[in-house]
Amino acid sequence: MTGWVGWLMPYGAIVAAALAASLLLPFQQYRFSFSLVMAAAGAALYHGLRRRLYAHVEPLIRRCAGLDGASRQLQIAACSEIIASKRLARHELALVLGHRSCAHIEDGRFDAAIADCDEAIRSARSAAIFITRGTAFAGRREFHRAIADFGEAIRMAPWEARTFVHRAFAYLGLGHHDRAIADCDRAIVLVADLPEAFLCRGVARRAIGKYTAAHADLDCAIERLNDALARAPGLAPIHGMRGYAFLCKQDHDRAIADFDCAIALDPSSWRVLPHRATIHLRMGNHDAAIADFDRLIAIDPASARALIGRGAASRAKGEHGRAESDLTLAIDHLDRLIARFPDYAPAYADRGLANILKGDLAGALADHEAATRLDARLMRALYGRGLVKTRLGDGESGRRDMAQAKAAEPEVDGLFSPFGLHDG
C-alpha cells in the first residue's frame, strides 16, 4: 500500500498504543507514554515524507519523526520547519501535525496538542488523530470530550483494541465504572493479552467492590508487564504502568519503587508524578508530595488537581498562606472550566473539594450538590456532599449520603483521605 493511507495506517495503529488515562486515586490516571509510540510512528512518517521531500532534508525528517534521539523541543522545531515549507499535501500535513501533537503531549502541553490535532482534522480525518486529541483532552481532565473523540476513532477503526481502553479510562474519570468494564471486555475480546485492559478493568472492578475479580485482573496486568520488562528491560512507561497496578493493589512500596525507576530512566516521565505524590500525601511525606506537585505545576500551571494536592500538603504542614493561594488558584481554573462546560460534573466535584479545604463549606455543598444533580453516578460527589453536611451539623443526612456512596463504591473515602478528610 502506498501514499497517504499506507503511511497513516501504521501511524494510527501505533499511536493507538498511547493510553489515555483518567484519574481514580485521585489524580490523572496513568497514561501509557507516547515515547514508545513515537519511535515506531516516526518510521511511518520518515519513510513517507522522505519519498516526497527527498534526501537533502532527510535529517530534518528524521528529527521530526523522533528517530535521531533529539529532545522533544528540537523535534517540535523540526516538525514546524517542515510544516512551514508548505510543500506538504493535505494528508502529509495531517501526519506531521499528528506527530508534533504527540510530542506536545509528551511535554504536557495539551492545548498545543489539541490545536495541532484540530488543524490535522481539517486537513485529513483519521482514527489516529482523534485518539491523539482524545488523549490531550483526557490530560486536561475533559473526559467527556475525550470520550467523544475515542468514540469517533472506534467508529473509524473498530478493530483497534487499545482505543476501547482509552475510552474506558476516560469513563473511569467520570465514575462510569460499568461502561469502563464493558469497553475493557471488548478490548480483551479483540486482543486477549493486553495489559492495560486488565489494569483498567481491575481498577473499575475494585472501585465497585468486586475485589476478587479486581485483584485477578491486576495480577494479570502485572504478569504481562513483567513479561514485557523481561523482553525489553529499562522501559520507563512499563515501570510506570506496573507501578500504577501496584498502587491499585495498595502495595505502596512496590508502586513507589516502579515510579522512582520510571523517573530515573526518563526524567521527563511526569505522568507518574501524580501517583507518587498521592502516595507521599497519604503517608504524610508532605515535602516529597510538594516536590512532585511542584514539578507537575511547572509543566501545567493550570492543573487544578495538582494545585489542590499541593495546597492540601501545605495545609497539613501549617503553611496556610501557601495553601490558600494554591486552593484559590485551583478554584479560579475550575471556574473557567465550568464556564466553558456548565454541565461537566467532575469540575464541580473538584471545586467542591478545593472549597472544603479552604473552609468554604457553603460553596462546597453547592458544588457537590450540582455535581450529584448533573451525574448521579459520580459517587465522589455524593460522598463529598455527605462530608460537607456532617461539618455543617446535618449529621444524619450526611451519613446517609456517605453510606450510599460507599455502598456503590466501597473505597470512595480513599479519594478524600489523602487530603486529611475523613468521615469520623
Description of the molecule:
This protein is mainly alpha-helical and 424 residues long. It folds into four domains: 1-143, Serine Threonine Protein Phosphatase 5, Tetratricopeptide repeat, CATH 1.25.40; 158-231, Serine Threonine Protein Phosphatase 5, Tetratricopeptide repeat, CATH 1.25.40; 239-283, no CATH class; 296-424, Serine Threonine Protein Phosphatase 5, Tetratricopeptide repeat (Alpha Horseshoe). The protein has helices at residues 3-15, 34-53, 58-64, 72-84, 90-106, 110-123, 127-139, 143-156, 161-174, 177-190, 195-207, 211-231, 236-248, 252-265, 273-282, 286-299, 304-316, 320-340, 345-358, 361-374, 379-391, 395-408. It is globular. The N and C termini lie far apart (64 Å). Mean pLDDT is 85; it is low at 1-40.
Concise account of the structure shown:
74% of the residues lie in helices and 0% in strands. It is built from 22 helices and no strands.
List the helices and strands and how they pair.
Layout: H1 3-15, H2 34-53, H3 58-64, H4 72-84, H5 90-106, H6 110-123, H7 127-139, H8 143-156, H9 161-174, H10 177-190, H11 195-207, H12 211-231, H13 236-248, H14 252-265, H15 273-282, H16 286-299, H17 304-316, H18 320-340, H19 345-358, H20 361-374, H21 379-391, H22 395-408
Helix pairs in contact: 1-2, 1-5, 1-7, 2-3, 2-5, 3-4, 4-5, 5-6, 5-7, 6-7, 7-8, 8-9, 9-10, 9-11, 10-11, 11-12, 12-13, 13-14, 14-15, 15-16, 15-17, 16-17, 17-18, 17-19, 18-19, 19-20, 19-21, 20-21, 21-22
